[in-house]
From TrEMBL:
Name recorded for this polypeptide: PaaI family thioesterase
Assigned keywords, A-Z: Hydrolase
CDD domains: PaaI_thioesterase
Ranges for domain Thioesterase: 55-133
Superkingdom of source: Bacteria
Taxonomic lineage: Bacteria, Bacillati, Actinomycetota, Actinomycetes, Streptosporangiales
Organism for this UniProt entry: Actinomadura soli
PANTHER family: ACYL-COENZYME A THIOESTERASE 13, THIOESTERASE SUPERFAMILY MEMBER-RELATED
Molecular function GO terms recorded: fatty acyl-CoA hydrolase activity
Keyword Hydrolase: yes
Keyword set includes Hydrolase: yes
Family: Belongs to the thioesterase PaaI family.
Amino acid sequence: MGTTAGLAQLRELLDMGMAKGYGIGALLGMTAESLEPGRVVFALTPRTDFSNPLGIVHGGIMSTLLDSAMGCAVHTALPDGAAYTTLELSVNFVRPVPLEGGRLVCEGTTVHVGRKLATAEGRVLNESGKLVAHGTTTCMVFPPATRE
């Protein structure tokens, strides 16, 4: 899989006390459950302010959870100085998620990490271990800047 400077960078964030999230993760209360080369597991517990007009968890919450886990899975596989951005995100919602349904766990794994593009897939499971959403992403990879 090559170097994993991105993995070290994510682990450093956790070591600095950001285990309860960073950026959007902190806003949603995401926690990092596992960080490995090409694999990331994030979790969150739905809150009332995550609801849509039907009173269930808004699809945007699960989309953000998937985007974060899949993107960070790509991040773990990048060399020092490289960056990435999401080009495409596809999400499939399998079943509704009640606000009081308990913790959601999302695993993101890389499928392909190349010099210019990376792809990953993800799955969100409810507290009972049932699939509630899954998705894929394509990320553009920016190589480390060359220094002369």
